[in-house]
Records
---
Amino acid sequence: MRRCNGDGAHQREQTRDGSRTRTWARKSAVGLALAAVLPFGVSVAAPGFEPAAAQAAFNPDGFDFYVDSSMGPIKSRIFRAQDGNTDRVVYALDGQRARDDLNGWEIETEGARALAAANINVVMPVGGMSSFYADWKSPSTFLGIPAGSAAGSGSGASQVLAGGPGKTYTYKWETFLTQDLRNALRDRLGFNVTRNGIFGLSMSGSAALTIAAHHPDQFVYAGSLSGALNLSTPIMRNAVRLAMLDCGGYNIDALGGAKDSSWTRLDPYTNASKLKANNTRLWISAGSGLPTSTDVINMTTIQGMGIEAVALMGTKAFQTRFASVGGKNAIYDYPAVGVHNWKNWEAELARMIPDLSANIG
């Protein structure tokens, strides 16, 4: 693994021997083909394929923290810093297939324990499938048919008429994170609500940068792991449309239409100048798309290779854009191996923690 600083002065790329490069090219060609027709930003498995069994699951060190909002009561999981401080706080956002019982960082990783051991309080919002942690214009419906008109199988486009989060009410996740939850953490737990950090993976990697760009009074640090960092292009919007259909059967037009200004506001690429002006500390990473030696080569891994390759391209595009506006307060990390999966993101979080620790609170 090599790192480079935001000004590009110390950028170093991994080199690969010819045979390894040819192997990666053959595998990623398949993955890119799949990524072209399967959703970008899916944080777990391809349609019809389930992720490996969770390695962590429920962590008894945390506690449930419910906060009222326009979406109803929303649960977060709170993990207290080992030293008991209330000044150092980070929000850990979930991926596109976010569940309503636990956050993926708790289900799939030991990230909460690692952060708490670094004396960082962890806030894990629960829920928000396909939301991009944004404020939507309306509930997600299709053809004006009320949500809940039909039952679905639990996955994919069969869920378009089924009920669920963001369908009988309007997603207002940005408002929840930056007002409702923020105020409750201050008033009920005494947490510091300035100089916080926020990070996410895939869908929520872009959300972390976007929220930090618009709320610099709250967030001074933002991390994107395999994020979708160039959302404004028609190709990316169409990819997100497919992803939302697959991840819960959501209609992207309820978030923002093709010509809606919502896309500019949600795109880290177009918010690069804001992040620079705010002097937000950034940690930006994406894997190479090469599987690790412990990744089983199956359809889930192959799809993860392709999606990670797309994430890498968008991440590099953001790096170029950030540099063009004079942004320098960033670390870019491009591991030599890593596909679009939780093992990759847990390893990346471990690399990010020292920098996060040094820049919040």
Note: Strands lie at 3-5, 63-67, 74-79, 89-92, 121-125, 196-201, 219-225, 281-285, 330-333.
---
Amino acid sequence: MTDTHQRASFTSFEESTAEDWAIIAPQLSVTQSMVADRVIDLMRALEFDHGGFPVNRLEHSLQTATRAEKDGQDDEYVLCALIHDIGDTLSPYAHPDIAAGIVKPFVSEANHFMVKHHGEFQGYYFWHYLGMDKEAREVHRDNPFFDHTEEFCAKYDQKAFDADYVSNPLEHYEPLIREILRGADSAS
């Protein structure tokens, strides 16, 4: 298959020209238009990893989102609840940063903070069993989003391991993923 799309011709940014960037810049919206599908694919991949938990990682994510949705949280919050652990299969130790990087351009500062730091806040419930500091979240005590994140973990994240809970399926959330992650250029 031949690639017929025009491409820039530089070998280093130092050599690039305005004409090169005129070719590259429009492609950002093309790439952004694929993000929702890629996020959905990554969510589906969570189904095949349980990490020893009572439910697989997809079910945990669906339970977290379903609980937030049923509690009346807005769409942005529900999206964050859904994809907060999307990075678990890519990099368990850095999974909050992966999810936070995905949502950052599209969500409030409060919800970005919540996703980025949920791991430390979630640790309150179990880190002491692993010889870690369960109070690690306290470094964020003076942050205006501390309570927001604490509530997310208390009400939704730490409770989302019930094998008998009936969650909404991923398909239920696909329109939400597409709506929020479509990007500014494709919003028109």
Note: Residues 184-188 have pLDDT under 50 and may be disordered.
